[in-house]
Structures are given as C-alpha cells and as structure tokens.
Design a protein that fits this description.
By secondary structure, the chain is an alpha+beta fold. It folds into two domains: about 200 residues, Bira Bifunctional Protein, Domain 2 (BirA Bifunctional Protein, domain 2, 2-Layer Sandwich), CATH 3.30.930.10; about 45 residues, SH3 type barrels (Roll). The chain has a seven-stranded mixed beta sheet with strand order 1-2-3-7-6-5-4, with helices on both faces. It has a five-stranded antiparallel beta sheet with strand order 11-10-9-8-12. Strand 5 and strand 6 form a beta hairpin. The protein is globular and about 55 Å long.
C-alpha cells in the first residue's frame, strides 16, 4: 500500500511540514532530490519521500537497498538557526527522533549505533545520512535522510551488519504512513531542542542513555580515525570518546563495529 497524501497532510496540520510534502513513486535518491531543492531555495520543513529509490545511499556513499514499497525512504530539508559548531548534534537528534517513532509505531526498542545506525538487537533496521551546507558561522541548510526497513523479508548475505525489518521484529505488519507521521513530529520536537544552547548537554546525554554503543563497548572504529578501544561516552559536540591503548581518542567521523572482545561496561 502506498501513501495517502491527503491523510498525511491532515495529520501534519500545525507542523512545519504541512503543505510541504513531495512524493515520488520512484526516484534516484531522496537526499539528492532534497539537496537540489535546497539549493533552489525550497522552504524549511520540505519533505521528499518515495516508494522506491534506484540510487539510495548511506554514509560514505554506501548503497542503501530501497525496494519498491518495502521501506520508509525520506529526506527532510531543514534550515536550522544554529551555529556551525552545533551541526554535529543534528544526526544524533535525527536518530533520537527515528528511534522514538519506531517505538511509538511498532512498540520496538531501537539501539542507536553512533553516529547513524538504527539497530534492534544486533540487526540493522535503519540508517541516517545528514548532508549540510554552511556559510561562515551558520548552517545554510541541512538535509536529513532516513531509511528504515519496514516490510522487507529477505536481505543480502554479505552485509557487514545483519539486517532486519520492523515487520520481522514486531511479528506483524507495520504501516509506513503512521511511521512517517510519527517520525516527522518527533523530528520537529528534536530540531526545536537543537535551537537551545542546552542541546550540547541534553542530546549527547539522551543518545548515551538510548545506546549500548557509546559507553563501555569494545569497538573497532573504521574511517580516518581508525582505532580499537572501549567507548567512553560522547562529548558536548556529539563526538565519540574511545579509550585506546595510546590514550583517549575523540572520534569525529567514522563507523563502528563490535571488537572481538564483547566487553560492555559502564563509563
């Protein structure tokens, strides 16, 4: 079943997204479409979503399989009045919103694997890709792309992290439409919090509470700051702290995998 745009609009009345829904049955990538719209002057709160993506992508240009009618593929254009220094908190805020939406819609608890993965247990059900343009000290715009596996029943065997879907985890069919409504409403709440200077304390703290990955987990960090160690929480920028054999490393970007040692202690 596809989306009912009239009903969606009625549920989003009074939000920043009302009157700004842009749906395509098939698109290359919702993030690519949203980025082009942002450069053309599209409004804050514009939403771009599709039934199918032919070129869906995640962080690091990893492909995101986006089969027709199987998942939620959506990108939201934001023009937040925040300093550039607060921009790294945005992916974390989006993750909190997505986790809350899954909890509300499917009654499932989501683990957030810093910086952008949504997991249920050891299985990945979603991912986040935030792309932004900054001007001097301000954020000109940011596009928050969210992909969530909803109806999928089968997955490629060579994935670095085993995958699952909300249907499989909940053992029932989860509707994409209320999931989208819930996601947008929670995202509005989180982006409003991001405007407050207290976000540098509240968002890292809440991610730390919602994640088994950012505190006391043995991990391998992949990317430009590759290292192995024990996670030690998040700093006020939302960057990951990792205790390694050579000292404490502040990881600004990269991906996480569990290290061979499965230790999980408190920070």
């Amino acid at each position: 079943m596809s989306f009912d745009l009239h009903t969606l609009e009625s549920f989003l009345t009074g939000t920043i997204f009302a009157g700004k829904l842009h749906f395509s049955p098939v698109t290359d990538s919702t993030n690519t479409v949203a980025l082009a719209a942002a450069r053309a002057g599209a409004a804050h709160g514009s939403v771009y979503f599709a039934d199918e993506q032919l070129g869906g992508r995640g962080r690091g240009d990893h492909a995101w399989h986006s089969a027709a009618g199987e998942g939620l593929y959506v990108s939201i254009l934001l023009r937040p009045a925040i300093p550039v220094a607060r921009l790294p908190l945005l992916p974390l805020a989006v993750g909190l919103a997505a986790a809350s939406a899954v909890r509300e819609t499917a009654d499932l608890e989501v683990d957030i694997r810093w910086p952008n993965d949504l997991l249920i247990g050891s299985r990945k059900v979603g991912g986040i890709l935030v792309e932004a343009k900054t001007d001097a000290s301000r954020v000109a715009f940011a596009v928050a792309g969210i992909g969530i596996n909803v109806h999928q029943r089968g997955f490629a065997a060579n994935l670095s992290t085993p995958a699952s879907s909300l249907d499989l985890e909940a053992d029932r069919r989860i509707s994409r439409q209320p999931l989208l409504v819930s996601l947008l409403k929670f995202l509005q709440r989180e982006t409003l919090e991001l405007l407050d200077s207290s976000a540098t304390e509240s968002i890292p703290r809440r991610v730390q509470e919602a994640s088994t990955w950012v505190c006391g987990r043995s991990v391998q960090v992949h990317g430009p700051q590759a290292c192995t160690g024990i996670t030690a929480g998040l700093d006020h920028n939302g960057f990951l702290l990792v205790r390694t054999s050579v000292g404490l490393v502040t990881v600004q970007t990269g991906g996480l995998r569990a290290a061979i040692d499965p230790a999980h202690k408190s920070c």
